[in-house]
């Protein structure tokens, strides 16, 4: 990580975001001998998790350790990384990238890998336990909590799908309807829940019960406590796509947030701007984000190479 003054410095590529997608893109760009800068605000989505799962050869690694290794790797190829936040990007012959700590840099191409934030359900105790015994993804954490008594907190009728999915990892699942009325569930929903052995509990959830820093139950509004040691929730994803919107990128509104329209390599509708990781979708796991960063970087290398050759021909 560098603390040098980067004002008015010119890079081939500025990568906005130093998570898996951004570091992966930077690694490929550095190895292709492109002067690259990563601007990292240091707020990875998976920071609450003690370990990341499902990444071949890195299964179980702490996220902070994974990112530290990535930063070491990009440094070998001359990639610079600064702890800062990009506040704006302006289009011109080059892109002008404004930094929160003052000044800015110029770049020929931009990779936006700013990720998203998970907004927790407004239930007492949920936010403070997230990443420990309040979870959201069975593929990320299901094995580690297998066979424990699960609770699933509904945020909408779509919570049925989450309850059915997590029943793969435990036969003891209780689906708390919370603010969802039972009439909002279809007959097929109810029959599937019954087939999966999922208990359905109506009524609003008042909060979680924690004893000795361990989740032990879910309290509903009538005061009854249901013994549970794990609760799955569905956070509201908040994409960090403000830079893309200000650049005029075409956006697609989905039930899980508004994301940029990109081609298979992550190129947005703005020439010279790519996006990768959770900046393009809420389901991008670490392994997907790293892959997306790689694809974006290879496309940028080709794009810059052809631009340089065409410029040489013109000269």
Automatic annotation (TrEMBL):
Glycoprotein in keyword set: no
Keywords of this entry: Flavoprotein, Oxidoreductase
Domain FAD/NAD(P)-binding: start-end pairs: 11-291
Catalyzed reactions per annotation: [thioredoxin]-dithiol + NADP(+) = [thioredoxin]-disulfide + NADPH + H(+)
Keyword Flavoprotein: yes
Protein name per Swiss-Prot or TrEMBL: NAD(P)/FAD-dependent oxidoreductase
């Amino acid at each position: 990580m560098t603390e040098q003054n980067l004002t008015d410095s010119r890079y081939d590529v500025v990568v906005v975001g130093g998570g898996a997608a951004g570091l992966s893109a930077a690694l490929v760009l550095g190895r292709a001998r492109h002067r690259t800068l990563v601007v990292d605000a240091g707020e990875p989505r998976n920071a609450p998790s003690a370990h990341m799962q499902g990444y071949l050869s890195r299964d179980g690694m702490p996220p902070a350790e994974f990112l530290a290794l990535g930063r070491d790797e990009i440094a070998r190829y001359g990639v610079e990384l600064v702890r800062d936040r990009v506040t704006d990007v302006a289009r011109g012959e080059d892109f002008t990238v404004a930094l929160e700590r003052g000044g800015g840099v110029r770049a020929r191409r931009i990779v936006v890998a700013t990720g998203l934030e998970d907004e927790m359900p407004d239930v007492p105790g949920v936010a403070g336990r997230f990443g420990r015994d309040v979870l959201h993804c069975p593929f990320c954490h299901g094995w580690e909590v297998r066979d424990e008594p699960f609770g699933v907190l509904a945020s909408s009728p779509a919570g049925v799908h989450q309850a059915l999915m997590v029943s793969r990892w435990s036969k003891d699942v209780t689906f708390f309807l919370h603010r969802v009325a039972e009439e909002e569930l279809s007959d097929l929903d109810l029959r599937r829940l019954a087939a999966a052995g999922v208990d359905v509990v109506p009524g609003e959830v008042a909060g979680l019960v924690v004893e000795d820093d361990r989740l032990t139950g879910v309290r509903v509004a009538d005061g009854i406590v249901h013994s549970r040691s794990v609760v799955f929730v569905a956070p509201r994803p908040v994409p960090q796509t403000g830079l893309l919107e200000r650049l005029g990128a075409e956006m697609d509104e989905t039930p899980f947030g508004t994301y940029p329209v990109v081609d298979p390599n992550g190129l947005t509708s703005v020439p010279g701007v790519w996006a990768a990781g959770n900046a393009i979708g809420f389901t991008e796991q670490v392994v997907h984000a790293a892959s997306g960063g790689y694809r974006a970087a290879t496309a940028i290398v080709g794009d810059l190479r052809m631009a340089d050759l065409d410029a040489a021909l013109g000269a």
